[in-house]
Amino acid sequence: MADSVSDIFDALAHPTRRQILQDLKDGELAAGAIAARFNTSGPTVSRHLGVLRAAGLVTERRDGNRILYSLVGERLALSVGDFLSTVCPEQIVLRQVRKRSTPSRSTGEVTA
């Protein structure tokens, strides 16, 4: 698991890869459409996509001669969230406080 998390943070280290992830948040995009958003060569964007794919942050599927990429947001959220929970214990405390102060589903009363 540690190598997997390292791959994710390595993938997030480059601003182009972070921008690709942001671009994919609204749905899948063709590799050419992704590459057109950057002032770098197609092969460079392809390498960035390969890093994201290897880290499990994007998936690809073929549609004829196009390659379509999609975000794997839950993997990103879980990995980053787990890391933040270990280094930011106050977030854990805040979540526990929020849980205790939310209305009970059965009675509608606040449990504290």
Molecular structure report:
GO terms for molecular function: DNA binding; DNA-binding transcription factor activity. Keywords: DNA-binding, Transcription, Transcription regulation. This is ArsR family transcriptional regulator. Residues 1-91 form the HTH arsR-type domain. This protein has helices at residues 2-12, 15-23, 31-35, 42-54, 73-87, 89-100, and strands at 29-30, 58-63, 66-71. With 112 residues, the protein is of the alpha+beta class. It has a domain at 2-73: Arc Repressor Mutant, subunit A (Orthogonal Bundle). The chain has a three-stranded antiparallel beta sheet. The longest helix is centred in the C-terminal third of the chain and has 15 residues, at 73-87. The model has no long low-confidence stretch (mean pLDDT 85).
Structural key phrases:
3-stranded antiparallel sheet, Arc Repressor Mutant, subunit A, 112 residues, alpha+beta, 3 strands, 12% strand, elongated
